């Protein structure tokens, strides 16, 4: 800065020597103006960056002051952490009857999505996301989103309309310490206990992260030493966990010492060649278990007490016809048993009505891209109380909202 100013003054005084010539006077004036402009252009971003650095530093810090270590193996009861309260359990995955069967079938969404978080490039600043892989909407406030920002190893709480989010879990670098995450793959937001349940994939554990307030952050390992793939909770607050190595889904009731296998590998294909060999799961209001069988590009459903699964979507190989899927990454099932799927490698969100032989495209499906009507590797679907659809558009590092047209 000083050097530049110095140089400007120097050149200005040199100009003085050519006072007599009008031409040189104009040239001299022009040079000073250009130098000033260049200096402004160069210095402004540096100044802004400095300002932003200060903001980031103050917003990011959620220091764990009290940290309880409760290491638990799979064989020890997770009861204390699964439920201590007897109040109504409220999770962002709870099934609420929001529409009649006919209304649910008639429901449509806008073709153009609105970006409600991210889309500022791939990165780890607070206004950026890096492969967001789960999106959850707060059950009490439709404006608040919880985003599993997978490749930033963090969970971000983001209010719609705001320019940036707030880190509420992880974001402390890759690692296996209690305040760190390593490629988290699934998320449950439990409002009754004000905590997050996170499937911490690379750390092979399920961790509970209390988010009461910034001065009191606590983590608790609920399950460890197993290949955590996906998490779900039923209406009674029982937790379900899928294990992609054993290819099984276990249920943990309150007070359980050992989990109970509710669905085993029968039917689930070998996924060891997949990029992430995950088994995303969902539990509907009747305790039916759904699992994504990526290897076979289909969705399996085990009704309560059933030993064998039935295919409820896909199952016709990989493809982009309406009866096919391509590596679906998450599913949501509504009160009436209709299935909503992030059909990741078809760049679309599809709905399979209960019992249907094929699905219909409800968002995207216009090839890979970043236009408002396009998606790029959609990896999660969620709905708010109005029925608006939210998609974690992983490859575009953004969250898209598709407004419901007819409620
Ligand atoms: C959707 O977005 C595209 C691209 O921005 C625009 O051309 C089109 O008019 C939009 N359609 C509607 C219905 O808003
Ligand atoms: C944070 O939470 C703890 C435990 O619930 C409570 O004791 C403390 O007062 C809270 N602090 C603030 C600033 O709300
Ligand atoms: C839990 O599993 C372990 C190991 O399989 C077994 O030894 C133990 O008896 C089981 N506990 C209960 C209460 O079933
Ligand atoms: C649960 O069962 C009831 C009664 O059979 C049915 O009306 C409802 O659609 C079922 N829910 C789901 C999600 O399948």
TrEMBL record:
- Chain intervals with Low complexity compositional bias: 76-98
Q: Which residues form the signal peptide?
A: none
Could you tell me which SUPFAM superfamilies the record lists for this protein?
Calcium-dependent phosphotriesterase (SSF63829)
List keywords of the entry alphabetically. Answer: Membrane, Repeat, Transmembrane, Transmembrane helix
Pfam families per the UniProt record, alphabetical: NHL
User: Could you give a GO molecular-function term held by this entry?
Assistant: zinc ion binding
Q: Where are the transmembrane segments?
A: 27-48
Q: Give residue ranges of the NHL repeats.
A: 369-405
Name the domain of life. Eukaryota
Please verify whether the record's keywords include Signal.
no
Q: Which PROSITE patterns match?
A: NHL (PS51125)
Question: Where are the residues of the annotated region Disordered?
Answer: 76-101
Under what name is this protein listed?
Uncharacterized protein
Q: Which organism is it from?
A: Adineta ricciae (Rotifer)
